[in-house]
Amino acid sequence: MADLSRRAITQIGLMNSAFNIEFFYDATANQVYLLEINPRISQAHTDIFEKVHGISHHHIMLNLALNRRPKALDYNGKFRKGAHFMLRTFEPGVVREIPSGEEIETLKKKYPDLAIKLNVKVGMNLDEMRGQDSYSYELANIFLGGKNQEELLEKYNDVVENLTFHIDYVEEEMLY
């Protein structure tokens, strides 16, 4: 992915600019696809950089703006791995219950690094959500850190298992 990133950025001629690249990994085919290149930093990544590097990636953008060559960020954060998980559902429906403040606070006591942003409210029709892709609905954004990928995924799975989402899914009519 790093090699593909270098080649793509070189090919399009992006220079002296912060950017981020999104990839999609198809585990079945063991194939990586480049989804998009954004000629800006992503606000959604700030938490991850702070968890892993101990400093926001805004530092890089600021150095570029001041015409300074940014230095590679050291691993001075609390964690070696950080992630932004997008909890999704793939069927349309109406949200009937979302995680309570108590559920979220209990999880934050267990995982102090946890940050959760709920994207749905009770009564919301998922088909009416704005800014969604064409095949899924983003229920929440979950930010976590871990010493390695295994710990990170264990924490994520525990968080998801302890968040209450109840959705009345709409049965789609079959067209003949």
Describe the secondary-structure layout.
Layout: H1 2-12, E1 20-26, E2 31-38, H2 46-53, H3 58-65, E3 81-89, E4 93-97, H4 101-110, E5 115-118, E6 137-146, H5 149-161, E7 166-169
Antiparallel strand pairs: 1-2, 3-6, 4-7, 5-6
Model description:
With 176 residues, this protein is of the alpha+beta class. The protein folds into two domains: 2-65, no CATH class; 81-169, Aldehyde Oxidoreductase, domain 3. 28% of the residues lie in helices and 27% in strands. The chain is built from five helices and seven strands, in the order αββααββαββαβ. It has a three-stranded antiparallel β-sheet with strand order 3-6-5. A two-stranded antiparallel ribbon has the order 1-2. It is globular, with a radius of gyration of 19 Å.
